[in-house]
Inverse folding.
C-alpha cells in the first residue's frame, strides 16, 4: 500500500506551476475584495479598498511574487461611477428596453414611449420594426407601437432575433427553435431541442441561422431548404453565439471559440467565467463580460485573432444584457441587483457612468429594466 | 501512550504525515489572522494546502483544467466561508472535503456526458502516452468517481475509513467496500506486492 501512497503523491500533475500561479492571482484578487469582518462597520468602501490593496500587495511582496502585483491589480474594482438620469443617450440612435411594464423606445434626447406589453423585444435590422414577445405570443410593432401582426405559439416564446435582411425572425418556443417570415407567415420548426440561448443569423441574405442543440452541437441551418450542418460540438454550456469578422463564434463559461479554427480559443482567466458577450457593430470586436468572485470585468477580444484587448472597466457585482451603441463607442449593460445600467465608453481614459432612476423612467422595479438593442444611427 | 501522543494521533493527518499540534495551531492561527484581514495569512494557507488540493482534484477528475477549477473553487468557497468557519475544526480536512465533493460532482457530470452520443465534442484529457505514471493514472481514471474519491482520501490524504465515512456522509461499510473494489481493480497496475 505504501507503493500506492508514494505513487499518488509523486504522479506529475500537468501544468501544476502555472495553475498555482493563476489561482494565487485569482485568490489574491478575491481576498482583496473581502473586507475584514471586524472592520466592516468602520471602513468606508474607499478605505476598505485601499486597505485591501496595501495588505495584498504586502503579502505578495513578502512571498516574492511582486511581479504578479501589476497583473492582478487590474482586477480590482474601479471607483463607483458617477450617476446620471436616463435623460439622454451619449451616442446617436434609439435604445430599445424592456421593464416590468413592457417594451420601451428611448430616443436620443431621453424621450421615451411604450411599445407594448412585451417581456422581451428586438429591433428589425433597419430599426423600422420591433419584434416583441409576451407569453406564448410573438408580435411585431412599428416604432410608434402600432401592432402589425401576432403569432401564437404552443409554448412560451423567448429570444426573438430578426434576420439581417428583415425577411425572417427566429425565436425559441419552449425547447424548440422556430422561424417565421417578417410578415408573420410561414412559421416553421428548425430544431426540436436547443439550449436556452438566442440563435444568430449569418450577416448576409442567405437565411443561415446558427444555434446550439441541447446536445451541445453548434449547428448552421439553411432555413429556406431545411438543411443543417454541425459546425462544432461540446457546447452544451454555451452562453452566447454570434457572427463576427472571423466567422461563427461561441462562448462558454470558460472559453470563446471559433467554428472556423477548431482548437483555437480564448480562455477566461482562472477564477473568472464568461457571463455573456456582444459583438461590435463592425463585427471586429467582442465585448466579453467576465464574472469573478463578487466582481465583473468588461473587456474586448479581437474577433479575428481571439486575443484579449484592454479591460474597459471592472466593477463590483454582476451585469447582463450587454449592448453596443450603433457607433461602437459605448457599451451599456444592466446591473439588476443595483437597479442601474452601466454606460461604458470605449474612449481611453473616459470613465463609465451609472444610469439610475430606471424605475421612474421605464416603470416597475429598476431591477427588471434591461437594454435590448441600440439601433440604427441616422 | 502519553496524553500528548494520544492527542496527536487523534489529530487529522496531512500529506501522509501525522500533523503536529503546532501545525494545526498554525493553521488555526492563520485562519484567525486571515479573518482579521491579514492577506499574508491567507497566502500562507494557500501555499500550504494548494498542492495537495490540486493533486486530489486531478486524481479524481483526471483533467488538468477541471482539476484547477475544482481546487480553485474550493479555495474560493473556503474564503467565502472564512467568517463562519468553526475555528475549533482543522482547516485542511474541511478544505479537502470541499475539493473531493466538488471533484466527484465534476467527474460524475463528465461520466454522464460521455454516455450520450452527442458528447463527442467534449475535450479529452490530453497528454503524452509514454510517461511512467500513465498506467497508474489510467487505472485510477478507470475507476468510478466514487471509488476514485475514497482512494484519494485514503491513500493520498490519509483519511481513515471512519473519517471518509463521516466526510462523505456514507456508511462505514460502503467506504470499505468501495476501497476493496478499487484496490481489486488497481491490482493489475500495482502488482500483488503492492497490495
Amino acid at each position: 500500500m505504501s507503493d500506492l501512497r508514494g505513487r499518488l503523491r509523486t504522479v506529475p500533475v500537468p501544468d501544476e506551476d502555472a495553475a498555482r500561479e493563476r489561482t494565487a492571482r485569482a485568490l489574491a484578487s478575491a481576498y482583496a475584495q473581502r473586507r475584514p469582518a471586524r472592520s466592516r462597520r468602520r471602513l468606508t468602501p474607499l478605505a476598505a479598498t485601499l486597505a485591501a490593496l496595501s495588505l495584498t500587495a504586502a503579502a505578495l511582496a513578502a512571498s516574492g511574487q511582486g511581479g504578479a502585483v501589476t497583473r492582478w491589480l487590474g482586477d480590482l474594482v474601479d471607483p463607483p461611477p458617477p450617476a446620471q438620469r436616463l435623460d439622454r443617450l451619449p451616442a446617436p440612435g434609439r435604445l430599445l428596453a424592456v421593464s416590468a411594464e413592457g417594451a420601451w423606445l428611448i430616443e436620443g434626447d431621453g424621450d421615451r414611449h411604450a411599445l407594448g406589453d412585451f417581456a422581451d423585444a428586438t429591433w428589425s435590422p433597419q430599426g423600422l420594426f420591433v419584434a416583441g414577445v409576451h407569453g406564448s405570443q410573438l408580435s411585431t410593432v412599428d416604432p410608434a407601437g402600432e401592432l402589425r401582426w401576432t403569432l401564437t405559439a404552443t409554448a412560451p416564446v423567448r429570444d426573438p432575433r430578426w434576420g439581417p435582411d428583415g425577411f425572417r425572425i427566429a425565436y425559441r418556443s419552449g425547447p424548440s427553435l422556430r422561424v417565421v417570415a417578417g410578415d408573420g407567415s410561414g412559421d416553421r420548426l428548425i430544431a426540436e431541442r436547443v439550449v436556452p440561448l438566442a440563435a444568430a443569423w449569418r450577416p448576409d441574405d442567405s437565411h443561415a441561422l446558427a444555434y446550439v442543440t441541447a446536445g451541445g452541437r453548434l449547428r448552421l441551418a439553411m432555413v429556406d431548404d431545411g438543411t443543417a450542418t454541425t459546425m462544432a460540438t461540446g457546447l452544451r454550456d454555451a452562453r452566447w453565439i454570434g457572427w463576427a469578422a472571423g466567422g461563427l463564434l461561441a462562448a462558454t463559461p470558460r472559453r470563446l471559440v471559433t467554428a472556423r479554427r477548431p482548437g483555437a480559443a480564448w480562455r477566461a482567466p482562472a477564477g473568472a467565467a464568461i457571463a455573456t458577450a456582444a459583438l461590435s457593430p463592425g463585427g471586429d470586436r467582442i465585448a466579453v463580460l467576465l464574472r469573478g468572485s463578487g466582481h465583473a470585468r468588461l473587456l474586448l477580444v479581437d474577433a479575428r485573432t481571439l486575443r484579449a484587448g484592454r479591460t474597459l472597466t471592472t466593477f463590483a457585482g454582476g451585469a447582463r444584457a450587454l449592448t453596443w451603441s450603433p457607433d461602437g463607442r459605448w457599451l451599456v449593460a444592466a446591473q439588476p441587483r443595483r437597479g442601474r445600467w452601466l454606460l461604458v465608453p470605449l474612449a481611453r481614459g473616459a470613465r463609465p457612468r451609472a444610469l439610475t432612476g430606471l424605475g421612474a423612467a421605464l416603470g416597475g422595479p429598476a431591477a427588471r429594466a434591461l437594454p435590448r438593442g441600440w439601433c440604427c444611427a441616422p | 501512550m502519553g496524553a500528548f501522543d494520544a492527542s496527536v494521533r487523534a489529530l487529522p493527518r496531512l500529506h501522509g504525515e501525522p500533523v503536529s499540534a503546532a501545525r494545526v495551531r498554525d493553521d488555526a492561527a492563520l485562519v484567525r489572522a486571515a479573518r482579521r484581514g491579514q492577506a499574508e495569512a491567507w497566502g500562507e494557507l494557500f501555499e500550504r494546502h494548494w498542492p495537495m488540493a490540486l493533486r486530489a482534484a486531478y486524481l479524481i477528475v483526471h483533467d488538468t483544467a477541471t482539476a484547477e477549477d475544482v481546487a480553485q473553487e474550493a479555495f474560493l468557497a473556503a474564503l467565502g466561508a472564512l467568517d463562519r468557519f468553526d475555528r475549533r475544526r482543522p482547516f485542511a480536512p474541511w478544505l479537502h472535503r470541499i475539493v473531493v465533493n466538488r471533484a466527484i460532482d465534476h467527474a460524475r457530470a463528465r461520466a454522464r456526458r460521455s454516455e450520450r452520443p452527442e458528447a463527442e465534442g467534449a475535450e479529452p484529457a490530453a497528454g503524452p502516452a509514454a510517461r511512467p505514471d500513465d498506467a497508474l493514472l489510467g487505472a485510477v481514471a478507470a475507476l468510478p468517481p466514487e471509488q476514485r474519491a475514497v482512494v484519494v482520501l485514503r491513500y493520498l490524504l490519509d483519511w481513515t475509513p471512519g473519517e471518509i465515512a463521516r466526510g462523505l456522509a456514507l456508511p462505514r461499510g460502503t467506504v470499505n467496500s468501495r476501497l476493496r473494489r478499487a484496490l481489486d481493480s488497481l491490482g493489475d497496475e500495482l502488482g500483488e506486492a503492492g497490495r
User: Anything to note?
Assistant: Helices of chain A lie at 2-10, 16-33, 45-62, 66-73, 358-362. Chain A touches chain B through 53 residues (CB under 8 Å).
